[in-house]
Automatic annotation (TrEMBL):
It is found in: Cell membrane. The keyword Signal does not apply. InterPro entries: Poly_Biosynth_Transport, Polysacc_synth. The keyword Nucleus does not apply. Pfam families: Polysacc_synt (PF01943). Its main location: membrane. It comes from the Bacteria. The lineage of its organism: Bacteria, Bacillati, Bacillota, Bacilli, Bacillales. The chain crosses the membrane at residues 12-34, 40-58, 79-101, 107-126, 138-161, 167-185, 284-307, 319-338, 350-369, 375-395, 407-429, 435-456. One of its GO terms (cellular component) is plasma membrane. Keywords: Cell membrane, Membrane, Transmembrane, Transmembrane helix. This is Lipopolysaccharide biosynthesis protein. It is a multi-pass membrane protein.
Length: 468
């Protein structure tokens, strides 16, 4: 069954992604206690620039790999040979250019920044290749290797050697490199390289498909990371450090949502054009909306407790930002699901325009509100941008398929999360108070989602009986 295939992919991706996203929580006490907000703010700024530059410079060629390998498996060797050569050539060119720029401009940690960007490209390339080849185990093992190396080096270099900012660069680069090596051992993308399989015509097709998506990353960057530039310029780089810690709580939201989106993207390519595909799309989306908002409602009191126990010093001032960041992440997730409908139809240009509008709203709003509301103005602007992107994509996709979105559920659950946020903020310092709120929220959500819970329980019981 299609749903079984989707669930299986979700389970495999979850195993690997869980460890990586968990780092975002594990490092919060470490960073807030041992890393100065100025240094963390600078590192977050560099990460923002890397996330912007890498997809654009390499035209997100890995997106093309995922689509073309799934559709044209008979050309698998030609696809990988062509993209291998292309990425290798670009890396040499960019390395020489960056070396010249860093020497002329005397960029701090210039070599580390370049290595971080290069390994980030490699991670994306091998990750998407693993998904295209349906080798989910290689994907998961790579993420686990990344986690082990990153965690070990962070604790050793920060707590024992007190390296501060250099430790962040070293652990990031080493973790990504470990991931690439492990995945290459499983996938052998370069080991099976054959120059005779290079196909310039196929490469042009890949770039033609991927290039609009790389431009689209600029818009996503405006939404997710553009705020860092505004913060540094208008508020201060120390505030960017506080913002980066709050944003890490938003990243934990993607623990499940990114896994579902990755698995669903592959599924949408496979089922496009099949009978009942629209109904399947709508059922998955409804489940996603209910699950994500339920997760946010639970996470809000948990976050208040976590901040009270594990976030130190000036970083604790970012507590009230996290619920807004959760909501922004939720609507980004919903937009990504709707975006898969356009990707399945090869209409990547629609994704670009909708994301660009959202990006402009996010950054424009942040530029206006940051001097007035500080960091809260930045996160509120991002939320407004993601909601606009969701609405635009929903209206446009409705013209292309039978799209049934339960707006009442979406609005109602959004308001419920806002109410939980307000109630939690009334006594943010009391852990007992937050635990009471958590228990009430879990009880309400259990009642509201009892139909989904019973379905899962029934499926588990059936599998247990089948294994006897």
């Amino acid at each position: 069954m299609k749903i079984d295939r989707l669930v299986e992919n979700i389970k495999i991706y979850f195993f690997g992604t869980f460890s990586t996203k968990l780092i975002q929580f594990l490092f919060i006490p470490l960073y807030t206690k041992y890393i100065d907000s100025f240094e963390l703010g600078y590192f977050n700024l560099i990460l923002s620039v890397v996330w912007f530059a890498v997809p654009l410079l390499y035209q997100t060629i890995w997106e093309g790999i995922l689509r073309f390998v799934i559709e044209k498996s008979e050309n698998e060797e030609r696809i990988f040979t062509s993209t291998n050569l292309y990425c290798f050539g670009l890396s040499i060119l960019y390395g020489l250019v960056f070396l010249l720029i860093s020497l002329l401009m005397e960029i701090n940690y210039g070599f580390s920044i370049f290595l971080m960007a290069l390994t980030q490209m490699g991670v994306s390339y091998w990750q998407f290749s693993a998904r295209a080849l349906k080798n989910s185990k290689a994907y998961s093992f790579g993420l686990v290797a990344n986690t082990v190396i990153t965690v070990a080096l962070n604790f050793i270099l920060i707590m024992i050697f007190k390296l501060g900012l250099p430790a962040l660069f070293i652990s990031n680069i080493a973790g990504s490199l470990a991931m690439i090596i492990v995945m290459e051992m499983k996938l052998r993308l370069f080991a099976n390289f054959r120059i005779s399989k290079f196909d310039i015509s196929l490469l042009k097709q890949l770039i033609k498909y991927s290039f609009p998506l790389s431009i689209n990353t600029i818009s996503w960057w405006l939404i997710n990371s553009g705020g860092s530039i505004i913060i540094v310029n208008q508020i201060g780089i120390e505030e960017n450090g506080i913002y980066s810690i709050s944003s890490r709580f938003g990243m934990i939201m993607t623990l499940i949502t990114s896994v579902v989106n990755m698995a669903w993207q592959e599924e949408s390519f496979r089922i496009h054009g099949e009978k009942g595909a629209d109904n399947y799309f709508n059922r998955v989306f409804d489940f996603l909306v209910r699950s994500v908002f339920s997760g946010i409602a639970v996470l809000i009191p948990v976050t208040f407790i976590f901040y009270r126990w594990f976030v130190y010093g000036e970083y604790s001032t970012g507590l009230l930002l996290t619920p807004i960041i959760y909501l922004s992440t939720a609507f980004s997730t919903f937009s990504s699901h709707l975006g898969s409908g356009f990707l399945a139809r090869k209409e990547s240009n629609v994704i670009f325009y909708s994301t660009l509008v959202a990006g402009i709203i996010s950054v424009g709003g942040a530029a206006v509100l940051a001097p007035i509301l500080g960091l809260m103005g930045v996160v509120v602007s991002s939320l407004i941008g993601t909601v606009c992107m969701f609405l635009i994509r929903a209206l446009m996709l409705k013209k292309r398929m039978v799209l049934e979105l339960k707006y009442i559920n979406t609005i109602g659950l959004s308001l419920f999360c806002i109410c939980v946020m307000f109630v939690c903020s009334l006594n943010s310092v009391s852990v007992i108070y937050q635990m009471i709120i958590l228990i009430i929220v879990v009880a309400v959500l259990f009642f509201a989602n009892r139909d989904i819970i019973f379905v899962f329980q029934s499926r588990i019981n059936q599998k247990l009986k089948g294994n006897r």
